[in-house]
Automatic annotation (TrEMBL):
It is an enzyme of class 7 (translocase). Residues 30-256 form the Cytochrome b/b6 N-terminal region profile domain. Residues 1-23, 541-571 are annotated as: Disordered. This is Cytochrome bc1 complex cytochrome b subunit. Its EC number is 7.1.1.8. One of its GO terms (molecular function) is quinol-cytochrome-c reductase activity. GO terms for biological process: respiratory electron transport chain. It is a multi-pass membrane protein. GO terms for cellular component: plasma membrane. Residues 547-561 have a biased composition (Basic and acidic residues). It comes from Tessaracoccus defluvii. The chain crosses the membrane at residues 58-82, 126-147, 159-179, 225-249, 278-298, 344-369, 389-409, 421-445. It is found in: Cell membrane.
Amino acid sequence: MAKPTTVADSSPSVEPTEAPSKKPSVGAALYTWVDDRHGIAKLGRTGLRKVFPDHWSFLLGEIALYSFIVLLITGVFLTIWFKPSMAEIEYDGSYQLLKGIPVSEAFASTLDISFDVRGGLLVRQIHHWAALLMVAAAFVHMLRVFFTGAYRKPREVNWLIGVGLLALSTIAGFAGYSLPDDLLSGTGLRFVDGLIRSIPLIGTWAEFFVFGGEFPGALVIPRLYMVHILLVPGLILGLVSAHLALVVYHKHTQYPGPGHTNNNVVGYPLFPVYMAKAGGFFFIVFGLLVLMGGLFQINPVWTYGPYDPSKVTAGSQPDWYMGWVEGAIRIVPNWESHLGATTWSWAIFLPGVGLMGLLFTLLGVWPFIEAWLTGDNREHHVLQRPRNAPVRTAFGVAAMTCFAMFWLAGGNDIIATRFHLSLNAITVFMRVAVFVAPVIAFIITKRVCQSLQARDRERVLHGSEDGVIMRSPVGSYGEAHVPISQEEAYTTTQHLQRTPLEAADGTDAAGVAGKKGRISALRARASRWYLGAEVPKPTAAEIEAAASHHGDDAGDDHELQDSGAGPRQLN
C-alpha cells in the first residue's frame, strides 16, 4: 500500500511572495483620472455600441460632413497668406502678365498663394472643389430625406436644422467665391448689390450698410472674410453638432425590410465596424478632392484680372448653386412700379430675393404641411419608398425640374454662342419652360409611381414570371408565375396604408361639438387629392385568396422563404 510522502522538518519552508505591482501607463492613468470624474466609460459603452443601418444613400450626408472638414483644414492653410484688404497696391509678383498693374491686396495675395506659396495653388483648388462638393452633397442628401419621408415626426426639428445648414453652406460658398477680388467674383458681387438695392424702401440703406457706402466700397472684402472664416463656420459647426446629436437621440432611420420596425435599428455597431467604414470613407473623399484639385483647374483668377467696376466679364457664371437665381432674373420681363419717389424693381426683387425666400420657406414648412394633409401624428423610424408617396415624389421631381430650367436660363448666353441660337428665342422658351416643364414632370412622375405600386401589388398577389415561355393547347403563349420571396413580399407591403381625411365637425360620442377632431371640407379635399393617388396594397385576405388560387398541389412552392441570418439587430 502506498504511503504518503513525508516531508522532513529540516526542509526549508516556502513563504508566499507578492507579485510586483505593474505601474499603469500614462494613457491608462489619464483614462482612469477622467473616468473617475466624468464617467466616460459608461458613456463610451453606450455610444460605441450604437447601431447604424448600412445603406449607400446614408453616405450622402457623410460626404457633406467630410467636405466641410476638408474645407476647415485647407481654409486654415489659406488664411495664413491671404490678406483681406481692398487697399490698392502695384502687383510685383511672379505672374509676369500682371506686373505693374494696380490691384487690391486681396487679389495680390491670391496670386501669391497660387504662384509663390509651395502647394498653394493645389490647396486653393482643393478648397474650392470641396465647397462645391459640400453644397452638392447637402442638396442630394436633403432630396433623399425628402423623397423617403425621413423628415416626419419626430424629426421635424432636424429637418429645419438641415434647411439652415443648406442656407449657410450657400452663404459660405458665395462669400469665399467673392474674396479673391478678381473680375469674375466682382461681377458676382455687383449681382448681389443689385439684389440688395431691389429690396423695396430699404434697398439703398441696406446696400450702404453691407458695402460701407456705394458699391464697391472699401470694406466688403474684410466683412466677407469675417463672415467666411468665423461667423458662418461657427454656425455650421453648432448646427452640425445639433444635427448629429438629434440623429443619435432619435436613432437612425432605416429602409423597409425584414425585421425593420419602428422599435429597432438593424445594422452594425459604431465601433468597430461603422468607425472603420467612416474613417476609410473620409480618406476616400479627401483623396478624391486632392485629385480634383491637382488635375482639374478651377477659378484661375489670373486670367480674369483684378476687379474693375467699369468692366463685366463676358460669359461670367456664378457657382452652380447660385446659377438658378441668375437664370430667374435673366428671363423675367422688365417689371417696375413707381410709387411716389420710389422705384420698385419687381424684375429683380421677385426672381432674386423672392424666389430664394420662397424656396427655403417651403422647405421649412413642408413637414407641417404634409402632417396637416395626412393627419398623421405617429412616430416614423422606417423610411418610405418614394413610389408609395406618388404626389410627394411628383412634387419633388417637379421642383427639381423647375430648378433645372432656371439653372439653364442662367447660361442662356453660353447656350446661344455655343449652339449658334438666338438669345431672345432661348429667353422666351425658358419663360414658358419654367412653368410647363414642372407640370409635365409632375404628371409623368405621379403615373410612374402609381405604375410601380400596381406592379408591386401584382407581384405580391400573383408572383413573378418564371421566365419559361409555354404554349397552351389552344396555341397561346405565356409564362407561369412563381411566388416571390418572403423578403420581397415583406418589403413591398410593410408600409402603412394611408387613407384620406374625411370632413368632420368635431362632435364627440356625447354629441358635443368642439374644435378637437374637427376637419374642414377644404382640408378633406386637399387630403383626398394628396393621398387619393396611392394604389392600395394587398390585404391579408387578398393574399390568402391569391395563394389558394394557385392550388394545393403547388402549396410548397408558395411558401415564402426567409432570408436567413442578417446583420446585427438592436431592440
